[in-house]
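Subject — a protein and its fold
Fields — amino acid sequence, C-alpha cells
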Amino acid sequence: MPRKSPEPVRVVELFAGVGGFRVGLERASKVYRVVWSNQWEPATRKQDASDIYVARFGAKGHCNADIATVDAAAIPDHDLLVGGFPCQDYSVARSLNGAAGLQGRKGVLWWDIHRILRDKRHKPDHLLLENVDRLLKSPAGQRGRDFAVMLASLADLGYAVEWRVINAADHGMPQRRRRVFFLGHHRSTPIGRRLLAGRGLEDWVLHDGILAEAFPVQAAERAFRSFALQGDLAELTESFNAGPSTARSPFADAGVMAGRRVWTIRTAPDHRGPRTTLGDVLLPDDQVPRSFYLAPRDLPRWEFAKGAKKVERTSRSTGHTYRYAEGGMAFPDALDKPSRTIITAEGGASASRFKHVVRTGTGELRRLTPVELERLNMFPDGHTAGVPDTRRAFLMGNALVVGIIERAAAVLAARRSKARRR
C-alpha cells in the first residue's frame, strides 16, 4: 500500500519582519506553505522589512498594511499561525458587549492575534509565537499578568499551550539570544485533545512535548507549581498576582497550560550536540571592506565605551544629578563562544558599548558585517541585501534565530505526520 504524501501545512505569518519564521519553516519541512503574510512598520514611509520579504519570497499573499485594519475574513484559512509580535502592554481594560469583543488599553497587537483567532471559523490547528522573555514577568506591579492574560485568552479560544524560554546558544546556535516561545494546540487536534485530557502534563513539559523534544532540558527544581487562571480576562487583568511590586512571577521558564490550569517549572538545557561560535561565522579578512575596521584614532572612544566606568549624569526629567556605574565588557569579543545578543543599534561606525568588535588574524579590530550578523541569526547570506548596512543591522537586531523555528517546526511536522498515519 503506497504511503500517504504529507498534507500541506498552510501557514499565516504575522509581524513577519524579513521572514525569519518562513526561513525556519521551509528549512524544517516541505509541508509548510506560507499562504499569507503581513509586515507593517508604523510611523515610517520606508517599509524595508516588507520590501526584503517580497524580494526573497515574492509578493503573492503578502500584505503590507497595518494588521489592525485587516479583516479576519481577508486572511486565508490556515493550519499554523506564526509571528514574533511586538512587546507592548497586553492588559485588558474592560469587556465590551457584542461583536466588539475585548479591547486593550492601547489597542495593542496581541489583541489583533486574538481577534483573528476569534473571528476565523476554521481556527488554525497550531500557533507558534515568540516574544522577549520578560513577558513572563511583566508588568512590574503584577508580575506575570500579561502572560496570564494571553494564556487565558487562548484557553477561551480552545487552545492548550506549551512554552519555553530558549537561549539559542544553550542549544548549539551561534548567538546568546533569550526569547520565550509558545506553541498552541487547538482542542480539535490530537495534541490538543491529549493535553486537555490533563494526563502526563509534567512529562510533556520535560520529555514528551514538541519543545521538549526539540530543545532537551532537565528539571532545575524538585517540583512543578500549578495554579488556575481564574475570572474573565478583565478580572484576570485586575487581580492576577496583584500585590507588592517585588512579588515574583509564578511563571517559570517552561510550562504548559490546559483548560486554564498551569503547570510550570524551572529547567536547565541539556544539549549534547555540536556548538557554533562567533568565530565560526566570520568572513575571511580579505572579504571585509575596510570601512568595518576601527581606526587607531578611535580606539580610546571604543575602550571607554566598553570599559568599566562611574560617571555623573543629570536626569532630563527632574534635573537631579546621580552617579551611573557599569562594569566592563570583553573587548574584543571572544571568538570561541557564541556572540552576545544582536541589538538594533549594531550598525554604524561610531563607538558603542553594545556593538560587536572582533580581532582579525592580523591583529586588527573590526565590527561585524551584515552577512556575519545574518549568520548569527542563521539567515542565508545576503538575505537583507538591498538596503543600507545600518538598516541591515537594525533588521537583524529585530529578528529571531532561525534555527529555533527550524528545530521546533521539524518536530511538529513529524508529530502531525505520525498522527495522520494512525
User: Anything to note?
Assistant: The chain has two domains: 9-271+401-421, 278-386.
